[in-house]
Known about the structure:
By secondary structure, the protein is α/β, with parallel strands linked by helices. It contains 11 helices and 8 strands. 49% of the residues lie in helices and 13% in strands.
Amino acid sequence: MGIFDGGVRKTRENIFQKISRAVAGKSRVDDDTMDSIEEALVESDMGVDTTLKIVDALEERVARDKYMSFEELVGMLREEIGALVCKGDDSPAFDFSRKPYVMMVVGVNGVGKTTTIGKLASMLSRQGKKVVIGAADTFRAAAVEQLEIWAGRARADIVKQGMGADPASVAFDTLSSAVAKGADVVLIDTAGRLHNRVDLMNELSKIRNVMRKVVPDAPHDVLLVLDASTGQNAFQQAKEFSRATDITSLAVTKLDGTAKGGVVVGIADRFNIPVKFIGTGEGVDDLKVFDREEFVRALFDIEDLK
């Protein structure tokens, strides 16, 4: 089993059950079939715009290629969705030539942001990298406590201050410590609030500016964490955070527990921001570097449904 097979099974079942029912006993694709495909894609939360783009392309191909079987229709769908997911940035998840490589992590409370940071620290530590975590979400005591537990598991250093401390001050101290210790990677947590967008923009900008006093080109990556199970709310969060700061990559969590895995396709298409990591479970090893081709293959693995 590939790394995404279990994580996208519910989405795969939802899409193919509708398509197979729609084409059963038919010798050609008709309007009802296309309506069923459209419904399946929308229900997987690919989003209306992305779904219509895929359906329009399918209709053109069906008219040209003269559809003959369910397998051929699925093959067309795989190619069209693959073209959307597999476009964009092919850069590695971390650029270790920059030392320390600074990643600022943003996202609303409840999406798995703190857990994602912990799993990233564990992933990097297993690669032999020295990691420093900055607990700059100073508005939620539980976030700092969680990070301390994860830092211990990952054998990573953590820099923190008291509740209500200036997040930018925590970020400054974190980078100063990382530079002094020769760390490879810095992971900066931030407050998980979608408060007034001007306030959010000001806070994140301040953190950026203060970090650059220590590492001039920091942060090298701004990772937005999204929960796949929230569907269209994930689109809205991506939209709001993109307005507030320069998001450079995405982590999509909780993919294993939802039939809404199409959100990965929709967000990749609409925002043109690369998905770097996928969360497919609760375990420490269940955060994976996103492989776009493997994701598409797993999403369309018909044999797994038999």
